Amino acid sequence: MRGxxxxxxxxxxxxxxxxxxxxxVGFNEVAAVYDRGEGxxxxxxxxxxxxxxxxxxFGSTTGLSADEARVExxxxxxxxxxxxxxxxxxxxxxxxxxxxxxxxxxxTCLDVNGMPINPYARTYPRDFIQTGVSxxxxxxxxxxxxxxxxxxxxxxxxxxxxxxxxxQARILSPGETGGPAGDGSAGGGGQFVxxxxxxxxxYDVARFFLDDFERSGVLANVAVFLSLADAPSLExxxxxxxxxxxxxxxxxxxxxxxxxxxxxxxxxCEALREVxxxxxxVPSRKxxxxxxxxxxxxxxxxAGKIEGSTGSITQLPILTxxxxxxxxxxxxxxxxxxxxxxxxxxxxxxxxxxxxVAGLPSLSRxxxxxxxxxxxxxxxxxxxxxxxxxxxxxxxxRNLASIIGEEELxxxxxxxxxxxxxxxxxxxxxxxxxxxxxxxTLDLGWRTLREIPREDLLRIKQEYIEKYLExxxx
Length: 474
Fold this sequence. Notes:
The N and C termini lie far apart (76 Å). The model is unreliable at 178-190 (pLDDT under 50). Strands 9, 11, 14, 16, 17, 18, 19, 20, 21 and 22 form a ten-stranded mixed sheet that branches. A seven-stranded antiparallel sheet has the order 1-7-4-5-6-3-2, with no helix packed on it. The chain is 32% helix and 22% strand. It folds into three domains: 5-77, Elongation Factor Tu (Ef-tu), domain 3 (Beta Barrel), CATH 2.40.30.20; 80-369, Rossmann fold (3-Layer(aba) Sandwich), CATH 3.40.50.12240; 380-469, Bovine Mitochondrial F1-atpase, Atp Synthase Beta Chain, Chain D, domain 3 (Bovine Mitochondrial F1-ATPase, ATP Synthase Beta Chain, Chain D, domain3, Orthogonal Bundle), CATH 1.10.1140. Strand 16, helix 3 and strand 17 (222-228) form a beta-alpha-beta unit. It is an alpha/beta fold. Helix 9 crosses helix 10 (411-428).
């Protein structure tokens, strides 16, 4: 029977308490634990059998008495209160306001676990999102409705890049090929907003994001969910689900275009491993649970566009690769689920390049469908392809030069080395507050390509070479 309290706990194991199972208890159901007048501690059912249920507490079980405690199963999953007042607010990982402005005045509550999108109801992502960052817009284009993670490493500038994208990202109107970014506008008459979720971050990192959003004036169009490093592991698991629930409300109920930025997914996966270990589950690769893939998919697959709705959800998850290992289970599985990745390179960062986006490992699988005439510019695809090909050759020549010496290279190879230097210094490198429209980005690409022989521009149509190359000035 729902609402009935059960006295006594079978045992307490860290943040998990084991109790007799009520007949109608469900997985992920919210439970309240009471102990000797100390108020209630909320938790979530994480495992069950015919005779018992395991409840993980949102917080500490310190001081909890196994004999005196009482457990009440509330008969509902964890929910997030949503309403028009979501934007401009700051919440903790459980969706509770922490900015001092009180609760949202709304009676609408949504299950944070969400519902899987029917594949038949999905529409194919095609609309270009301008981030104002040349390395992304020019070569790894973000498309509305896409999930495109950023693979970073400890100490790299992923936080600065995430804040810059939040400040500058916008959706171009049909036929628009440039113009100042960062005005919060969107093509098709829809509002473009951001849901930002930080998991397991230190206080100074959280303060950096909040201060940046306030200083740049974009906080009014951002809903922030913060789960700090000292928060319980379970809160870290709930935080992205609360953020995505808010995004689904804004996108599919309010018809807004939503960009969801989630950092750091590595902290999320570490929390998942910790909870799995507490529950005594058999570990898989590097100690992570065997269901890591499906758990990540339950988050990533909540992005997309749905037929009949003008809103959309675009995801930009950020994860730090342990030891810069791209084959680690977290980036490895994320790459399988998502449509590409943007990889930050430590060697470029040490050269002073910002943002240090690696040219070759990065890709956007949906880029080809969101660029070209009427979306960005007619030469976008050809310029991007030629830049990739030329930079790939630069990497090969640099490896050769490290063996035989640069003075032994041919004149043509030396021209490619100069192209590589110009590509990194002129095209990849830009200021943290420098906002480039797509027209400016492509023009910089043409100026960089002037460094290599014209007869090597085999990936660009001749008509584009004649139209754009001569206009590109150093």
